[in-house]
Write a structure and sequence with these properties.
Elements (H helix, E strand, L loop, with lengths): L2 H7 L4 E3 H7 L5 H14 L3 E4 L2 E3 L7 H8 L4 E2 L1 H7 L10 E5 L4 E5 L2 E7 L17 H12 L7 H7 L9 H8 L6 H15 L4
Parallel strand pairs: 5-7
Antiparallel strand pairs: 1-3, 2-3, 4-5, 6-7
Helix pairs in contact: 5-6
């Protein structure tokens, strides 16, 4: 198949080799691999990771990136907290949660780190944007970062948490009980106490 025809038929901005085979179904897998190799070499395609490709002239949304890279997953922890205005600084990598094994990918789109979570805790995100709800992003953050966190008010102040009045603490509290008990519970209660005494002006 010619590249111009493949580009016309492939409607996705980012795609896997398996999806490319559906579009170029008349080509053998070997011929398609050779064609993709040539298209990447000529700059017609970007190789995102093994078996995942994208068109350089088509802008990719974050959900499309995630779905192509390592589905299922949703954006959480520092990335979601930053996007939600709970942390002031942008994350240096996109942090995500997945029921699959923990993996990291360095791509032309930046670095993506996928944290493994138990399937029963894989919830609390918008299926369209793949962005965790604020309460879920906060719980995931406390769960995965608990060894480096403290429940003391000075810690939360130094960590620069803000806009905590946006958190639905009752909903988050119900979700918190689904996580393993222990330090996460203390951190949640400590942050809630901090939020009550440090409201935005």
């Amino acid at each position: 198949m010619r590249f111009s025809l493949f580009q016309k038929k492939m409607l996705k901005r980012a795609f896997t080799f398996a999806e490319a085979r559906i579009v170029a179904h008349e080509d053998s897998p070997e011929a398609l691999r050779l064609n993709i190799h040539r298209w990447v070499k000529k700059g017609g395609l970007l190789r995102i990771r093994r078996g995942v490709f994208a068109f350089p002239d088509r802008a990719c949304s974050l959900p499309e990136m995630v779905s192509a890279l390592y589905p299922p997953a949703y954006v959480s922890l520092e990335s979601a907290l930053s996007q939600g205005g709970l942390l002031p600084d942008a994350a240096f990598e996109t942090t995500l949660v997945t029921p699959r094994s923990t993996r990291s990918f360095d791509t032309v789109w930046g670095r993506f780190h996928f944290h493994h979570i138990q399937p029963r805790l894989f919830f609390g995100y918008d299926p369209k944007t793949l962005l965790a709800e604020p309460e879920k992003a906060l719980l995931d953050y406390l769960y995965f970062r608990k060894t480096r966190l403290s429940d003391e008010p000075a810690f939360w102040r130094e960590a620069r948490f803000q806009n905590l009045e946006a958190i639905d603490w009752d909903k988050g509290g119900r979700w918190r009980r689904l996580y393993p008990a222990g330090k996460l519970e203390r951190l949640w209660r400590g942050l809630r106490r901090y939020a009550k005494t440090h409201r935005a002006d």
